[in-house]
Amino acid sequence: MRIVIKIGTSTLAYPTGRLNIRRVEELCRVVCDLKNAGNEIILISSGAIGMGVGKLGLKSRPSDMPTKQAAAAVGQCELMYTYDKLMGEYNHTVAQILLTSEDIRDGKRCENFRNTLFRLLELGVIPVVNENDTVATDEIVIGDNDTLAAVVAADIGADLLVLLSDIDGLYTADPRLNPYARLLTEVTELTKEILACGGEKGSALGTGGMRTKLHAAETAMNAGIDMIIANGARPSVLYNIADGRAFGTRFVGRKKQ
């Protein structure tokens, strides 16, 4: 099975921006175990800016573009060092791929990306994909890694897209504010009622919220790919998902005729 897994900043780091070591170690162990079972794994990893904020000792996430890009440059080093070190302990090799929207929109550059990624998978590598925050501007930015994950999954014909978030899935209302909010375990159509559930704001460190996840779901479903939102606080949930057991919210892909 070819699985694209998007990991949000809230899964990787504390609100301080510092690495959540215990969780990241568990995540890497589970990913490597799924790889050992014969799955192809592609990681779409947030966290570069957040980790850069922590590493640089900044008091908060920067709002100006040059500082954001500087934090991303510092944080990306720590992020890849962490993945390389932890997955290397399980005899797996990682590779870094940084993209902008131009790489996706331009036919030749997109073909080069696909060729590189497919060759990495053939070589048994775990690709780690992120938006190239150090050069991205308003004109070439993809916008969020939920969207990036869905675009990559559709582009490479993934069997499954998993978005690890700081929430169990899509609720009828914000469960942190409404005690009567109900988790939706399966979505087969993005109706107005479903889309209205996506009013959640992004986390303090990340930029994506439920709205971006619903946008990603639309892209995945249109490509015939199932997408699951699950809580990244428990990386072992990936075992249940890979085994086909219900967990979080599953958006059922529209199968091609």
From TrEMBL:
<feature type="binding site">
    <location>
        <position position="46"/>
    </location>
    <ligand>
        <name>substrate</name>
    </ligand>
</feature>
<keyword id="KW-0418">Kinase</keyword>
<dbReference type="InterPro" id="IPR001057">
    <property type="entry name" value="Glu/AcGlu_kinase"/>
</dbReference>
<dbReference type="GO" id="GO:0055129">
    <property type="term" value="P:L-proline biosynthetic process"/>
</dbReference>
<comment type="similarity">
    <text>Belongs to the glutamate 5-kinase family.</text>
</comment>
<keyword id="KW-0067">ATP-binding</keyword>
<dbReference type="Pfam" id="PF00696">
    <property type="entry name" value="AA_kinase"/>
</dbReference>
<feature type="domain" description="Aspartate/glutamate/uridylate kinase">
    <location>
        <begin position="1"/>
        <end position="231"/>
    </location>
</feature>
<dbReference type="InterPro" id="IPR019797">
    <property type="entry name" value="Glutamate_5-kinase_CS"/>
</dbReference>
<comment type="pathway">
    <text>Amino-acid biosynthesis; L-proline biosynthesis; L-glutamate 5-semialdehyde from L-glutamate: step 1/2.</text>
</comment>
<dbReference type="InterPro" id="IPR036393">
    <property type="entry name" value="AceGlu_kinase-like_sf"/>
</dbReference>
<dbReference type="GO" id="GO:0005829">
    <property type="term" value="C:cytosol"/>
</dbReference>
<dbReference type="GO" id="GO:0005524">
    <property type="term" value="F:ATP binding"/>
</dbReference>
<protein>
    <recommendedName>
        <fullName>Glutamate 5-kinase</fullName>
        <ecNumber>2.7.2.11</ecNumber>
    </recommendedName>
</protein>
<keyword id="KW-0547">Nucleotide-binding</keyword>
<dbReference type="InterPro" id="IPR005715">
    <property type="entry name" value="Glu_5kinase/COase_Synthase"/>
</dbReference>
<feature type="binding site">
    <location>
        <position position="145"/>
    </location>
    <ligand>
        <name>substrate</name>
    </ligand>
</feature>
<keyword id="KW-0641">Proline biosynthesis</keyword>
<feature type="binding site">
    <location>
        <begin position="165"/>
        <end position="166"/>
    </location>
    <ligand>
        <name>ATP</name>
    </ligand>
</feature>
<dbReference type="InterPro" id="IPR041739">
    <property type="entry name" value="G5K_ProB"/>
</dbReference>
<dbReference type="InterPro" id="IPR001048">
    <property type="entry name" value="Asp/Glu/Uridylate_kinase"/>
</dbReference>
<keyword id="KW-0808">Transferase</keyword>
<feature type="binding site">
    <location>
        <position position="6"/>
    </location>
    <ligand>
        <name>ATP</name>
    </ligand>
</feature>
<keyword id="KW-0028">Amino-acid biosynthesis</keyword>
<feature type="binding site">
    <location>
        <position position="133"/>
    </location>
    <ligand>
        <name>substrate</name>
    </ligand>
</feature>
<feature type="binding site">
    <location>
        <begin position="207"/>
        <end position="213"/>
    </location>
    <ligand>
        <name>ATP</name>
    </ligand>
</feature>
<keyword id="KW-0963">Cytoplasm</keyword>
<dbReference type="InterPro" id="IPR011529">
    <property type="entry name" value="Glu_5kinase"/>
</dbReference>
<comment type="function">
    <text>Catalyzes the transfer of a phosphate group to glutamate to form L-glutamate 5-phosphate.</text>
</comment>
<dbReference type="GO" id="GO:0004349">
    <property type="term" value="F:glutamate 5-kinase activity"/>
</dbReference>
